[in-house]
């Protein structure tokens, strides 16, 4: 005998939902199982009953479904599900988005990576952890198509998030750490046209990236564009970054030019500045200039490092001034750890580089 049941509770893995007015055969066993794929098909059917069915599915069901797709590597289904839920204002646990970002990064799924990053960011309303940015960058390693990335960052730039500039700067650093220098430069160029303009931290980060990659000509061009930008003021970190880049590339002539320019701008050299320039002058044979800066550093009560001592000693030996080299060597031996700058001192000067 056929009859209508008014309400039937249908259990699914991780939760349950109600189905209204199902015709069943009486007496009926009202319990039946529903797989994840079946549940997703109910959500995506688009039929007249799909809304009435999906609204009874709990957040736990969606969460478990996304986790399953992520574990199984079914990223296209995960992306489709996130798309279908974009207007439902469902807040997922952070772990769900992190797992999707990690999976998307491994499989170079740029669309899912940007979608998960966006939802996670706007749900949190604050900067994400560093692994999120790194996984986002990993997704783009093997592609030149950066349209999804630029659309994401432009949306962040135009949003009301108070941390929007921090998010973009950290994204740039993540792409730098994954050695995608071309994409870093592309983001910077696009950023100049966005509502959220690059600041001195953005520029300093890109300068550091270029220096580590040995692209010193690009560093100098970027430094020139910074000088032309009225909204950006060069600081000690800017000059230290360029000085170290020039020193690593053995452009010792430019080190002295930049140092003099920095002093003329009223920026006082610090431990990093002196160390880079003293080493550059010593290696280029300008012993007197190097010794003058070394004495100036000590007069300003900036503790020299062992590296600065050794650079000067080597310089003096090469120039045949063995007596002065011996005196400096004895001075170094008689110095205590309190008299010398250590690794922590260099880190202290580098700390403002990131935000």
From TrEMBL:
<protein>
    <recommendedName>
        <fullName>Pentatricopeptide repeat-containing protein</fullName>
    </recommendedName>
</protein>
<feature type="repeat" description="PPR">
    <location>
        <begin position="235"/>
        <end position="269"/>
    </location>
</feature>
<dbReference type="InterPro" id="IPR002885">
    <property type="entry name" value="PPR_rpt"/>
</dbReference>
<keyword id="KW-0677">Repeat</keyword>
<feature type="repeat" description="PPR">
    <location>
        <begin position="199"/>
        <end position="229"/>
    </location>
</feature>
<dbReference type="Pfam" id="PF01535">
    <property type="entry name" value="PPR"/>
</dbReference>
<dbReference type="Pfam" id="PF13041">
    <property type="entry name" value="PPR_2"/>
</dbReference>
<comment type="similarity">
    <text>Belongs to the PPR family. P subfamily.</text>
</comment>
<dbReference type="InterPro" id="IPR011990">
    <property type="entry name" value="TPR-like_helical_dom_sf"/>
</dbReference>
<feature type="repeat" description="PPR">
    <location>
        <begin position="270"/>
        <end position="304"/>
    </location>
</feature>
